[in-house]
Amino acid sequence: MEFVIYALDKPGDGQPRQQVRAAHLRVAMAHAEHFIFAGPLLGEDGHPRGSLYVLRFEDRAALDAYMAQDPYFSAGVYESVTVWPSRQVVPEALPGALQAELERQLAADADRAQATAPSR
Question: Of 12, 16, 55, 80, which has the highest C-beta tally within 10 A?
Answer without folding.
Answer: 55
